[in-house]
């Protein structure tokens, strides 16, 4: 199974590019972020014409996540347990949830498409929201894997953190000044690994950014960030056979400012091959 994650930065504006990539790359499951539309506004037809079923979750013209799959989608979820909400100026613990998470079981694999809050500024309430989001996500992962350690689980998407210094090539992103590289954000990201996940792409693709701002010629200068990831449980990681960061998707007319990340999974049960054959 080939899965890809991509912050498409408006699926309606880039549907032709997105579908063309999915077809060309032979993607079975595409997990999208920042679709920027409600489900009734999603451009389903081009995906369906290419053989994909789509589940979309969006509340307005911001945020939004979706899954397009050529394989059956089961047990759809639109938020994870404990996921916090956000509303500017709202002080309570029951702020409305944003459209930042969607999940499905695909061939027994639990896949999440996540658009982690940006944070906006170190003193902004959105930054505290971002850290709460990460903590709730860590708790979800910890609880889920404690209940089912053998579950193939993957969190995919735009995590809005550059976890290592080498993941930041943008001179405008500075520790102590901007978000994405603060110690608290990096600690929150690494806490997901402590909960039982690992970055399944980095060992196979150790270098390369996934996002370049549209301003200041960031892409031609390769002044980007690595902020899009696929984090998998042990069972998921053990099935990964290949990975790529599709840098060329940042080129051409009207690209997203992010590029797709792709992984190939071998979900065959090798142990079955060693069992003796039984004839009736």
Quick description:
It is built from 6 helices and 12 strands.
List keywords for this structure.
280 residues, Deoxyribonuclease I, Chain A, six-stranded mixed β-sheet, 23% helix
Q: What is the structural class?
A: alpha+beta
Shape: globular
Count helical runs. Answer: 6
The total of beta strands comes to: 12
Going by CATH, the homologous superfamily would be Endonuclease/exonuclease/phosphatase
- Count of the domains: 1
Low-pLDDT residue spans = 272-280
Itemize the secondary structure elements and their pairings.
Layout: E1 2-7, H1 11-25, E2 29-33, H2 44-49, E3 53-57, E4 65-69, E5 74-77, E6 101-106, E7 109-115, H3 125-147, E8 153-158, H4 183-194, E9 198-199, E10 228-232, H5 234-237, E11 240-245, E12 261-265, H6 270-273
Parallel strand pairs: 1-2, 7-8
Antiparallel strand pairs: 1-12, 2-4, 3-4, 5-6, 6-7, 8-10, 9-10, 11-12
Could you please describe the fold and organization of this structure?
The C terminus is likely disordered. It is built from 6 helices and 12 strands. The chain is globular and about 45 Å long. The two termini are 33 Å apart. It has one domain: 4-Layer Sandwich (Deoxyribonuclease I, Chain A), CATH 3.60.10.10. The strands form 2 sheets. It has a 6-stranded mixed sheet with strand order 3-4-2-1-12-11. The protein has a 6-stranded mixed sheet with strand order 5-6-7-8-10-9. With 280 residues, the chain is an alpha+beta fold. Helix 3 runs parallel beside helix 4.
């Amino acid at each position: 199974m080939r899965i890809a994650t991509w912050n498409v930065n408006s699926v309606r504006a880039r549907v032709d590019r997105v579908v063309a990539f999915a077809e060309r790359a032979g993607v079975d499951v595409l997990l999208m972020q920042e679709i920027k539309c409600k489900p009734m506004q999603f451009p389903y037809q081009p995906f369906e014409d290419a053989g994909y079923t789509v589940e979309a979750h969006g509340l307005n013209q911001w945020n939004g996540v979706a899954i397009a799959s050529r394989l059956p989608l089961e047990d759809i979820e639109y938020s994870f347990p404990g996921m916090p909400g956000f509303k500017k100026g709202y002080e309570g613990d029951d702020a409305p949830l944003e459209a930042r998470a969607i999940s499905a079981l695909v061939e027994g694999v639990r896949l999440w498409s996540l658009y982690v809050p940006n944070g906006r500024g170190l003193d902004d309430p959105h930054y505290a929201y971002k850290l709460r989001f990460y903590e709730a996500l860590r708790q979800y992962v910890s609880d889920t894997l404690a209940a089912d350690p053998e579950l193939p689980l993957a969190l995919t998407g735009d995590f809005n953190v550059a976890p290592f210094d080498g993941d930041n090539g943008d001179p405008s992103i500075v520790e102590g000044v901007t978000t994405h590289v603060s110690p608290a954000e990096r600690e929150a990201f690494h806490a997901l690994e402590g909960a039982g996940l690992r970055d399944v792409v980095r060992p196979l693709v150790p270098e390369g950014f996934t996002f370049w701002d549209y301003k200041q010629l960031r892409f031609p200068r390769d002044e980007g960030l690595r902020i899009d990831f696929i984090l998998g449980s042990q069972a998921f990681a053990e099935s990964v056979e290949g990975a790529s960061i599709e840098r060329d998707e940042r080129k051409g007319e009207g690209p997203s400012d992010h590029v797709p990340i792709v992984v190939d999974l071998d979900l065959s049960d090798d142990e079955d091959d060693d069992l003796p054959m039984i004839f009736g």
